[in-house]
Amino acid sequence: SIAILLYLARKFKTPDHWYPSDLQKRARVDEYLSWQHVNIRGKGSKVFLTKVLLPLLTGQPLCPKKLEGATEELNIVLKQFEDKFLQDKPFIAGSEVSLADLVALVELMQPVGAGYDLFEKRPKLAEWRRRVEEAVGKQLFQEAHEGILNIQNL
């Protein structure tokens, strides 16, 4: 939950880059955290649900038209994410990783876990992912996403 992340950042006085004290940088983080609920989270989860969970839970085969529609919606918000939030910056709030980057990448790992490599034809997005992974630590990042990346093995 975003509220819990913000609480933890404040309570434990995390390094400033996670939730910047600079008002303009903080506004960028807050803007993304508000936008992502119905955009990245909503569309990424829809791809994941359509491709993995619904067939698993219902025992019915994947509906290609539903998946195509969900993928198209996700592609639209990914372009918006690149154009509006990443622009030509290394991270959403500027030159350092923040909670916004962490939340964004976590949400994007759901469709990746469903087998949709949304980074493949998006070099800007792929480079941003690499920077976020390095900032967090590649091993920790892989451990945190091990379950979602292996979901299709169920």
TrEMBL record:
GST C-terminal domain sequence ranges: 22-154
Gene: Gstt1_1
UniProt-listed Gene3D superfamilies: 1.20.1050.10
Domain of life: Eukaryota
MF term (GO), any: glutathione transferase activity
The enzyme's E.C. designation: 2.5.1.18
Transmembrane intervals: none
GO BP of this protein: glutathione metabolic process
The protein, known as: glutathione transferase
Main location: cytoplasm
GO cellular component terms, semicolon-separated: cytoplasm
Self-association and partners: Homodimer.
Native species: Pedionomus torquatus (Plains-wanderer)
Alphabetized InterPro entries for the sequence: Glutathione-S-Trfase_C-like, Glutathione-S-Trfase_C_sf, GST_C, GST_C_Theta, GST_Theta
PROSITE patterns: GST_CTER
Keyword set, alphabetical order: Cytoplasm, Transferase
Compartments where found: Cytoplasm
Reaction(s) catalysed (UniProt annotation): RX + glutathione = an S-substituted glutathione + a halide anion + H(+)
Record keyword Transferase present: yes
